[in-house]
Amino acid sequence: MFINFAGSLITLVTCMLVGVIARKTRYFSDDSDRILSNLLVKFTLPGTVFMSMLRPFTRELLAESLQTIVIMTGVFLFGLFLAKLLSRLLPSNSGEKRIWQFALMFPNVTYIGFPLIYSVYGNDGMLYASMVTIVFNILAFSIGVDLLSIDKKSQSFGFRAKRVFLAPSFVAVFIGFIFFVTGWRLPGPVENGVGLIGSMTTPIAMLMVGSLLCKTIQENGVIALVKDWRVYPIITVRLIILPVIVFLVLSQFIENSIMLGTLVMLSAMPAAALTAIFAKQYGGDTNMAVKIVSLCDALCLLTVPFLSLILFG
Fold first, then answer.
1. What SS3 class is residue 271?
2. What are the φ/ψ torsions at residue 200 (nearest 5 degrees)?
3. Dihedral-angle region of residue 221 (phi above 0 means left; psi in -120 to 50 means alpha; beta otherwise)
4. The pLDDT of residue 292 is above 60
5. I need a surface site. Which of 33, 103, 251, 307 has the fewest CB within 10 A?
6. Which pLDDT does position 104 carry in this prediction?
7. Taking the domain 2-312, which CATH number applies?
8. DSSP label at 269?
9. Of 191, 189, 198, which is closest to residue 123 (Cα–Cα)?
């Protein structure tokens, strides 16, 4: 397991370094990052999610999918609970506390979690990861928006519901779930085309992450990112303590090793990139968001392989 996760992370880092180089040499820009992000969210990621649902239907698999939704709802809310406790102990203002709470509640399921789970577990793991996106979308566009939004009145229930249920990945889960239950399949050439589009998710995601990391370092400098000691307790909980707790609890009743590994390792992902995106969009503390996301992304290269070694052998 350690070799699989370490090897997969090295592969992802290689793609990410190309993104760094492309940004450094000005082949990538803010516009290209925006294009890559739209391509990911609206096309390639839904393709990955949909293809992960195309598998023979069994009652056991259906039960595990629904169980995943319930479990990860609890995990996300537990992360928020830990963040509220920790933010009371650290010197901070209200804006910083909200960023910490969002970062501990929401892991990077999409841009780092999906490529990593697919690299290690393939479509078997992606089925459970797809269920996690349901939880992520619902909570991020409800509780998450509340955490980071200054003008809460402008974000009506209807607006949030639309953002959740019309999100391309959520629609892909819904349509894919129908195909899963009914046993329907697309015509062979069409299915191969959707699969080919979905296979683009990993390299595009890593290129974009590398470009964003390079931009952050260029704008803030390395020293500004690493010198704020308050972020390290938050990162330690996000990358180590929370996934260990999740493993200790879930290993008591989940016998499916792929399901267990997927849920635990998704819990060990760095803070969601949405932390910085929402902070900018809804008036949150963008500087703190960038620090948390950037440092989490860097340190997870060390924590994820060693957690897989310690927890799964």
1. strand
2. -80, -10
3. left
4. yes
5. 251
6. 94
7. 1.20.1530.20
8. S
9. 198
